[in-house]
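User: Fold both of these, please.

Assistant: Here is the first one.
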Amino acid sequence: MANYYLEFEKPIEAIDQHILVLESEVGSTDHSTELTNLKAKRATSLTKIFSGLSRWQRVQLARHPQRPFSLDYIQEISPDFIELHGDRYFGDDAAVICGLGTIDEVKVAFIGQQKGRNTKENLHRNFGMMRPEGYRKALRIMKLAEKFNLPVISLIDTPGAYPGIGAEERGQGEAIAKNLWEMSKLKVPIISVIIGEGASGGALGIGVCDRMLMLENTWYSVISPEGCASILWHDASKAPDAADAMKVIPDDLMNMGICDRIIEEPLGGAHRNSAEMAVILKKVILDELAQLKEIDPDTFLERRIDRYDKMGVYTES
């Protein structure tokens, strides 16, 4: 059960607290009927709230501090996961988790951007913002996956690549560009899943793929709504308007041919039932891998060229 509530989730907070109080008294008093009624009321309230979310509200959900992160999913769906560290050039980047594991006997390589739950963890993880060594570490693992014929699962959740001076000095732009180039010709299937935020080149640097999936309450765009609002209107408070203008949510991206599949979240969002969300994600990934299994490795480049050629089409008058 959540203990942090976004503004539009506040009507559920009182119900949740009442349920917690009654559940703590189980054994001393029989509250079974009242609990059943409260849970039914909560489900009704959640359905009402979450059936009419705006784009900006979905952006807020994608950033929910209790939302499952990459490592949460990886540990749930691949208990034997082994993390690999370092880019063999400069160092390790804790903003990205890389390694090998199995999903129901299917061997895969994982790459996942990782945020923190508190200030200390976020400083360690750099708020999920990768540096050049992170992109080079990811590429090293992808090349390892290609060598051993393992599909790549990329879990994306970042506000963008780190824009610090040190990152620029170590070749941030070049590292992202090289990943785009190398991923496009990788001879194994790549599945990218937006599990939270998918912002800018920070997301695209591990996002070239054969299938792009998005959890229901996520967003994906060239810039954050606040960044866009600051540029267009010099006012970050107009972020909700920017989110609408940019069309950043999964439904929009499906209509544009960018997203291939929307993964439904548990009622109330992934943060309200992370275990169920992991089960859903595992099933979807296995389904997608089964569909990609029979593709000739020598055709991946052409398929990806064709895929990305269809995006951003324009006509001249």
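And the second sequence with its predicted structure:
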Amino acid sequence: MIATLTVVAGPMFAGKTSALIARIIEALDRHNQPVVIVKPAMDNRYADAAIVTHDGVAHPALPIACEHDLFAAVAEAAARVQGPVHVFADEVQFLEAPHFHGSFHEAVHALLVAGHDVTCGGLDCDWRGMPFDVSARLLAMADHVEKLTARCAVTGLPAQKTYKKSPDATRIALGAADTYEPRANAAWEGIERGGSTGEAQRLIDRQQA
């Protein structure tokens, strides 16, 4: 069979890690697939060696900071089972410079060519609405894409964007609900980006009525 790439993307609090863990459990329990689970070494918000949802559900994972870490883990697992493995990667937006040495999307391509299925989860855009390069490249090469939404903190509508509550302009800052909240496009564009403020306010008023 030809290996495939699946990408689960969306804003913060959309359940991306939960969806990834569900796919990991399905691969292990339903399909009896050998798996390799990786995460960015720099993301230690909840655990050093596990992927963890915002509500505390966790699964062990190998922290990686370079292509060698990824390839070594896959080679070891493949040698153990004498065949391909299913590679899962969470928070892939962090797997780019300066936090990751090498090209993660090219590494994924090499894994697919070698026959390993890959499933990735992560943010598609930063809090400014700008795409993460690694996420964009993975989405462009994906065989399957699952785009998730959260619940907008302002309107209650489906949220496609991540809003940063602090005034810090740093693009990448680890945080959770203390730093970020999900926003619908209308609320995010109208309130934060100088777009159609009137339309955003009408949406808010209608939700609160």
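Confidence is low (pLDDT under 50) at residues 190-198.
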